[in-house]
Amino acid sequence: MLAWMKSSGLLHCENKNFMLVTDGIFDCNQWLRHQCKLSKIEYPGWAKHFSNVKRHFKYVLSTNKDDGKSFSISEMTERLGIKMDGQLHRALDDAKTIVKIMKGIRGRRPGFPFNTNATYRPDWTLRFFDD
Q1: For residue 110, is pLDDT > 80?
Q2: pTM score, two decimals?
Q3: Which residue among 20, 39, 42, 49 is least enclosed by CB atoms within 10 Å?
Q4: Rounded to the nearest 10 degrees, what angle do helices 53-61 and 73-80 cross at?
Q5: Residue 116 CB coordination number (10 Å)
Q6: How confident is the model at residue 130 (pLDDT cuts 50, 70, 90)?
Q7: How many other β-carbons are positioned within 10 Å of the β-carbon of residue 57?
Q8: Which stretch of DSSP H or E encloses residue 6?
Q9: Does residue 120 contact residue 50 with C-beta atoms inside 8 Å?
Q10: What order of strands is seen across the sheet that includes strand 118-119?
């Protein structure tokens, strides 16, 4: 991934033209962090502030679940009337679905700015992975 990002001019550039978008805080605080640990590389600076599409969804649609939990990918696509392709929890399929959700949010609120709204937490306990 790092090689692709370098060849695409996404690393070490003054004007960053990308942002990591996830469907929850676990993606960075749990899974990406664990992959970095396994790969014996430092957690990337470009992923320390990211965009959690669940928070954008909740904000734009002004909605909460009765149980206080955030909406799942399936629930967001259903509420937005979006067809979900592929298999849930497969990285590329989820990424494509997140883009569809973002487009659905923009359909509800044109020009909505998908700013960073979540931050990497280095003190997060890696569930399932810590020794």
Answers
A1: yes
A2: 0.81
A3: 42
A4: 40
A5: 13
A6: low
A7: 23
A8: helix 2-7
A9: yes
A10: 21-22, 49-52, 118-119
Query: DSSP character for 23?
Result: S
Q: Which residues of 7-31 are buried (b: 16+ CB within 10 A; e: fewer)?
A: eeeebeeeeeeeebbbbbbebbbbe
* CA distance to 21, 57, 59, 70, 74, per residue, from 32 (Å): 12, 22, 25, 20, 22
Q: Mind giving me the DSSP string for 55-116?
A: HHHHHHHT---TTSPPPPHHHHHHHHT-PPPS-TT-HHHHHHHHHHHHHHHHHHSTT-----
List pLDDT tens digits, range 13-42. Answer: 555 667 889 998 888 888 888 889 899 999
Predicted confidence (pLDDT) per residue in 53-70, tens digit: 999 999 999 888 888 788
From the list 83, 85, 86, 61, the residue with the least C-alpha distance to 71 is: 61
Cα–Cα distance, 37 to 61 (Å, whole number): 36
The torsion region of residue 58 among left (phi > 0), alpha (psi -120 to 50) and beta comes to alpha
Closest by CA position to 122, among listed 30, 54, 24: 30
Gap between the Cα atoms of 131 and 129, Å rounded: 6
